Amino acid sequence: MRTKDLVAVTSMRSKDIQMSILPYVAIHAVVLLSIVFGGGDALKADGVQLALATFAVLGSIWIAMGVDGAIADIGAAAKDMDEEMAASHVGQNWAKAPFGLFRIMTAVFTALILIAELIAIYA
User: Fold this and answer.
1) CA-to-CA distance for 105 and 84, rounded, in angstroms?
2) pTM of the predicted structure, to 2 decimals
3) Greatest C-alpha distance within the chain
4) Which residue of 7, 22, 30, 37 sits 20 to 30 Å from the alpha carbon of 97, by its own alpha carbon?
5) Where are the domains of the chain?
């Protein structure tokens, strides 16, 4: 793949990751605020716990899937570097990056946050 195209594709996918940060933080901020300020009887009302848990789980999965796909594409692009870019220092660092580990960390961190939230919601 030509360097120009490779940089354009990876730039687009990295922007996808950056654009996912705000909704991810917003989802978990809403859940946290609901737990802290909506606790007690309000949180235990009919369907509120289920709705809040569903919001947290589905929102997190949706965003994590998008981030995972972007990381996979950026990792695949690292394999498509031309010889000139692969020989550069940036190219060498890019080729060494543990994209598989990044994907696992995304899933694990999302799962840990969700587990903590669900425990707090149903406690």
Assistant:
1) 31
2) 0.85
3) 63
4) 22
5) 3-122
